From TrEMBL:
Keywords, alphabetical: Cytoplasm, GTP-binding, Hydrolase, Nucleotide-binding, Ribonucleoprotein, RNA-binding, Signal recognition particle
Entry function: Involved in targeting and insertion of nascent membrane proteins into the cytoplasmic membrane. Binds to the hydrophobic signal sequence of the ribosome-nascent chain (RNC) as it emerges from the ribosomes. The SRP-RNC complex is then targeted to the cytoplasmic membrane where it interacts with the SRP receptor FtsY.
Family: Belongs to the GTP-binding SRP family. SRP54 subfamily.
Domain writeup: Composed of three domains: the N-terminal N domain, which is responsible for interactions with the ribosome, the central G domain, which binds GTP, and the C-terminal M domain, which binds the RNA and the signal sequence of the RNC.
Chief site of localization: cytoplasm
Keyword GTP-binding: yes
Top-level class of the enzyme under EC nomenclature: hydrolase
PROSITE patterns xrefs: SRP54
Keyword Isomerase assigned: no
Entry EC no(s): 3.6.5.4
Protein name: Signal recognition particle protein
């Protein structure tokens, strides 16, 4: 995410970091570079100019040049201003109303249908809501099917009327259906076009007026940069929407839309989409995003994701097993699955301060666990709980069953053995014994 921008800002600020004496000249030079980096990232021209002017003013106001660590203060000023630019505070969504109605708007291909599914799934699992998805695209039968497929995948009911050509009616009928059947959130997915056209705008404005939603979200593909910002302006003009959803941020190396949209339309980004899967949705936090852009990682989100997957009961059971020396390959598999649920490896690495930058050219393979999982799946239940019985012929069988080599099986067994020993030591004498074992 935003690799190019992060790189350029890092280079721009590098001159100041670590410099004992900083002159007005190199502050000005740095800010010029920062502005260039923002323009290269497709940030709106006016926004970029205002940004550097504000940072400059603040730098002068705080007498940056005379402070002990001027470089760091400059980085902080840039970070604070980036946060401000992206909205400052985290903006929530309005879920009042019975049911609360959420209207999705945006161009075709922006990721509206995918996001409708992600949001339904998010509300269902995180906020224990009962959402209903509504297909209001009357032009493309495929779009209705697509929403049904998404609904099936996440176990959320989809309301559609394939024969009805009146989207206002469909939306109203859906809300009535929701009231009768105990749904407390209604997510209305509307028709998009490839480009802004009057008929589409009138149609969605009519739906908007008729159903008076608690929340109108504008969905936009982050990779379209300034186009995204211009489309946002047009939709906002007609709908006065409440918030923006930036999709496909996983493929956005520039970041222009994320940085300029708030300052141009004065509406907060509320959610981001970071992949095609249903769990690739995140609440947008401006400060954390600024950290990520400046290569400072996002430890808070990382910890949050870990906590979401953390099951106290499971953890206790696991601890008991380790204490009794019963930690087996099934538990190992379980752990791998927990980690995988936290998100894609590349995404997780990007949240570790410094790691995203250091590993940006390394191809982080999300299938890295696949070989390990295949090996474990090829073991018998007894082999999983008692790995010591795995002899030469068993190894051969496991390797051929999992499509790996005996060498790979050996490697996994060795790693598992080391890990079990380490866990045992951490349980027992704490870190001291472990250090001794590691020869320190
Ligand atoms: P709609 O026409 O606005 O309903 O757009 P869709 O929901 O059909 O999405 C268009 C394409 O973008 C599909 O292939 C989606 O899988 C893909 N897509 C949607 N959101 C994301 C995202 O956050 N990341 C990535 N990489 N792809 C996405």
């Amino acid at each position: 995410m935003f690799d190019n921008l992060s790189d350029k800002l890092d280079k721009a600020l590098h001159v100041l970091k670590g410099h004992g004496s900083i002159t007005e000249v190199n502050v000005a030079e740095t800010l010029k570079e920062v502005r260039r980096a923002l323009l290269d990232a497709d940030v709106n021209f006016k926004t970029a100019k205002e940004f550097t002017n504000t940072v400059k003013e603040k730098a002068l106001g705080q007498n940056v040049l005379t402070t002990l660590q001027p470089g760091q203060l400059m980085v902080k000023l840039v970070k604070d201003e980036l946060t401000e630019l992206m909205g400052g505070e985290t903006a929530g969504i309005n879920l009042s109303g019975t049911p609360s109605v959420i209207l999705m708007s945006g161009l075709q291909g922006s990721g509206k249908t995918t996001f409708s599914g992600k949001l339904a799934n998010y509300l269902k699992t995180k906020k224990t809501k009962k959402p209903l998805l509504v297909a209001c695209d009357i032009y493309r039968p495929a779009a209705i099917n697509q929403l049904h497929v998404v609904g099936d995948q996440i176990g959320v009911e989809v309301y559609s009327e394939p024969e009805n050509k009146n989207p206002v009616q469909i939306a109203q009928n859906a809300i009535a259906h929701a009231k009768q059947n105990g749904f407390n959130v209604v997510i209305v997915d509307t028709a998009g076009r490839l480009a802004i056209d009057e008929a589409m705008m009138t149609e969605i404005a009519n739906v908007h007026k008729a159903i008076n939603p608690q929340e109108t979200l504008f969905v936009v593909d982050a990779m379209t940069g300034q186009d995204a910002v211009n489309t946002a302006k047009a939709f906002n003009h007609r709908l006065n929407f409440d918030g923006v959803v930036l999709t496909k941020l996983d493929g956005d190396t520039r970041g222009g839309a994320a940085i300029s949209i708030k300052s141009v339309v004065d509406k907060p980004i509320k959610f981001i989409g970071t992949g095609e899967k249903m769990d690739a949705i995140d609440v947008f936090h401006p400060a954390r995003m600024a950290d990520r852009i400046l290569g400072m990682g996002d430890v808070v989100s990382l910890v949050e994701r870990a906590q979401e997957q953390f099951d106290e009961e499971e953890a206790r059971k696991l601890q008991k097993k380790i204490a009794k020396n019963q930690f087996g390959f099934d538990d190992f598999l379980n752990q791998i699955q927990q980690v995988k649920k936290m998100g894609s490896m590349k995404d997780l690495v990007g949240m570790i301060p410094g790691a995203g930058k250091a590993l940006k050219d390394v191809d982080i393979d999300d299938d890295a666990f696949k070989g390990i999982e295949a090996i474990i799946h090829s073991m018998t239940p007894k082999e999983r709980t008692e790995p010591t019985i795995i002899n030469g012929s068993r190894k051969k069988r496991i390797a051929s069953g999992s499509g790996t080599s005996v060498q790979q099986v050996n490697q996994l067994l060795k790693q598992f053995d080391q890990m079990s020993k380490m866990m045992k030591m951490m349980q027992g004498g704490g870190g001291r014994k472990m250090m001794q074992a590691m020869g320190r």
